[in-house]
Amino acid sequence: MSPSVPLQEMIRAIRSARTQCEERGVIQRECAAIRAQFRQADNGGRSHNLAKLLYVHMLGYPAHFGQMECVRMIASPRYSEKRVGYLGAMMLLDEKQDASLLITNSIKKKVHDLGELFAPAARSLLSEKNHGVLHGAVVLITELCERNPETLERFRKTVPDLVQIMKGLVISGYSPEHDVAGISDPFLQVRILRLLRILGRNNEAASDAMNDLLAQVATNTDSTKTVGNAVLYETVLTVLDIKSESGLRVLAVNILGRFLLNNDRNIRYIAMTSLQRIVGTDHNAVQRHRGTIVDCLKDQDASVKRRALELSLALVSATNIRSMMKELLLFLSSCPPELKSQAASGIFNAAERYAPSQRWHIDTILHVLTTAGGDVRDETVPNLIQLITNTSELHCYTVHKLYRALLTDISQQSLVQVACWCIGEYGDLLLRGECQETEPVQVTEDDVLDALETVLQSHMSSPATRGFALTATMKLSTRITDNVDRIRSIVSIYGSCIDVELQQRAVEYNALFKKYDHMRAAVLERMPVIEKNSPGHTNGESTKEAVKEIQPAKVKQAETLLPQQPTNQVCDLLDLLGGSEEPLQPNSAAGSTVPVLPISTSSTAGGDLLDLLGGLEPAPLTPAVTVYEKGGVTLTLSSEKQSDSGLMVTLTASNSTDSDISSFTLQAAVPKSVQLHMKAPSGDFLPARGAAKVTQMVVLNNPNKVNLKMRIRVSYTSQGSAVQDTVQVDSFPEH
Predict the structure, then answer these.
(1) Looking at residue 582, what DSSP letter applies?
(2) CATH code for position 662
(3) Which residue range or ranges hold the GAE domain (predicted)?
């Protein structure tokens, strides 16, 4: 049999085989001939050969070697080859084959130049009576218009024809051939509406030509069936996307409002999605359905709830802020956990824009913190503090309300932080008990300190919250008179806290109580008003620049308080704080309480004084000496003389490599006559590129005053490898 025999001859030869062995021989010879012709670069009989191979495949014989030929034929410009190529792909390929990806990419390429060939014929097909032909023509015209702007302009002239076809479908009587649930050919109607939407977009003439039709479809289509709702939805999308009349847009919004009352959740969902898109341009029309939208907040479906929340927040305005906020706060108290953060953020933004009064604004935010304090964003606390600071007439009211909230619940960390801050700033107003805004409550100094101690000792309090509580306790030392010793005792306890942030603050506060008690009142005075940077700032924006603007005034104020102090006392203070020429970086543990900016030692005494409470990075009390630097790990040592024989050594480790270091530990050995006590380290993880440090405190007691030496073993794991090294320190920085 010749390799070029036609398909019919091959079929006849196979069928005439008397045995299965003879049939296999015929197929093997033909497959060999087909393989040889597939390898030829220019093969005119490709479709002929693939057709024969498909017949072989139907008989159950292997035909996988024709898969790549299917890909080549699909990419061919010849229609005859494309047709057989697609047929071969359907039969020879499945989703597990790599060639299917090539075919998918080939299908995605459309030849734009060929579109011009179909445009005249597509327009003439609009006069056909057969609905199948009309449907295909509309789909083709839609594709051509989406891909070529020139073709789009040309087909805008067909709008009257499309309007007539659509009117015929709307007003036609019952037709068994095309009727679906009482709607005449809804598939064709949807396709025509989509094409009209494309043709009428950004074109007033085309939009005017279809306005009457869209109104007729919107009013005459039955909305009790899913089929009718599909046509109505496409009508609404078309009305909202073209340059339609205002009355028609209101009609479209009303249709979406009816969708919100539908029992089908999918219909309610798409209605709210569409309303969300137009609420900015047709706000008043959407507002008419506010009640229905708010009711959707109670829907059981999480997706519907989320859309209803987004739409409800978009509908909040100055005229309905009180009623809408009442509904939103009610929703916040019972909404799913995954929506609490979004709801809280939206309520904050709405309150910032439309708050009728400052007291209402504060009450609303406090309500959110009480309900969902664990789900609010990080900037909520400083923003609320700024709001409270700027509302001086409500300081007494706010501190009383926050104190009662603190006694009720200390699990909401954001609420507890703001409450601690207010008690520290305005604790004197709380103790007076004179507040016209609320019922008078007698609060004693012990009551306030008990509340703050509860926060400090609670396992629910985060390190940042404890920082707020400790700073508030310290601030109360200048606002109360009978319990200063108790405050001193509380602060001293945290001087040896395992948390470095609290330990550092406690050490600084203890220094204020002892050596610099005369400066305590000036350092702990009330925060000034925090001004906003520029018009238009919202609570969602940072207030760092505002703090920078306030700092010079604060420095001047401190300067006026310090001239009577001897110069050597100020220098001693600088030594205590480890003053250096490099600016110290601020820290966020309780930095909202006292503003701190980088100030060098050359600035005024008052400026250095402000650094005392500024939440600095752990800084050595004497200049640090680098004792180990290897493999990107740096270890510095500083010391402070505690007594005649006692020395506090601070070891600080950092990592300058591009990979994190874990299981970092330090071990130390000293001469036998020296007593050594190593405190708990600040951690065992060193992030890459010096993002954070590990601090280890070592207490040495040298009663015999021998020459101090220390051997330090450094151990850690980096990139899966364990590293261990030893360094010896023969001398210590002098204090």
Answers:
(1) S
(2) 2.60.40.1230
(3) 620-733
Beta strands in 520-674 (DSSP E): 625-630, 633-641, 646-655, 661-669
Average pLDDT (311-339) is 87
User: With bands split at pLDDT 50, 70 and 90, how would you rate the model's confidence at 561?
Assistant: very low
Predicted pLDDT of residue 173: 63
The verdict on residue 651 lying in a domain is yes
In tens, the pLDDT along 494-549 reads 888 888 888 888 898 888 888 888 888 888 888 877 665 543 343 333 333 333 33
Last residue of a domain, one of 109, 132, 154: 109
Neighbours of 302 (CB within 10 A): 12
Do the domain assignments include residue 21?
yes
Structure tokens at 470: 């400790």
- Mean pLDDT, to the nearest integer, of 547-553? 34
Q: How far is 314 from 510, CA to CA, in rounded Å?
A: 51
Contacts 24+ apart (CB under 8 A), 210-215: 210/159, 210/162, 210/163, 210/238, 210/242, 211/244, 211/245, 211/248, 213/163, 213/166, 213/167, 214/238, 214/239, 214/244, 214/248, 215/248, 215/251
Domain membership flag for residue 297: no
**Which pair of tokens denotes residue 317?**
């305005």
- The answer for 467, left when phi > 0, alpha when psi is -120 to 50, beta otherwise, is alpha
Nearest C-alpha neighbor of 255 from the set 277, 279, 231 = 231
DSSP string computed for 116-132: HHHHHHHHHGGG---HH
Encoding tokens for residue 243? 């340059």
Q: Which of 328, 332, 160, 166 is nearest to 235 (CA)?
A: 166
| pLDDT > 50? residue 194 | yes
Domain interval for residue 660: 625-729
Side chain identity at residue 659, one-letter code:
S
361 and 387 Cβ atoms separated by less than 8 Å: yes
Question: Hey, what are 237's tokens?
Answer: 């999308």
- Whole-angstrom distance, CA of residue 623 vs CA of residue 639: 8
Residue 442: partners with Cβ closer than 8 Å, 6 or more residues away: 433
Look at residues 262, 198, 275 and name the one whose alpha carbon lies nearest to residue 236.
275
Residue 716 lies in a domain: yes
Beta-bridged to residue 675, according to DSSP, are 701
Which residue among 496, 524, 552 closes a domain?
524
pLDDT tens figures, 385-422: 888 888 888 888 888 888 888 888 888 888 899 999 99
Structure tokens at 348: 């904050």
Distance set, CA 293 to CA 273, 298, 313, 437 (Å): 11, 10, 11, 36
Q: Which residue matches tokens 């000792």?
A: 457
Per DSSP, helices labelled H in 458-590 are: 463-475, 484-493, 500-513, 520-523, 544-561, 567-576
Distance, CA of 726 to CA of 628 (rounded, Å): 9
Single-letter residue type at 319: T
421: closest CA among 439, 403, 436, 409? 403
- Answer yes or no: are the C-beta atoms of 494 and 503 closer than 8 Å: yes
Q: What is the pTM of this model?
A: 0.55
At position 472, the amino acid (one-letter code) is A
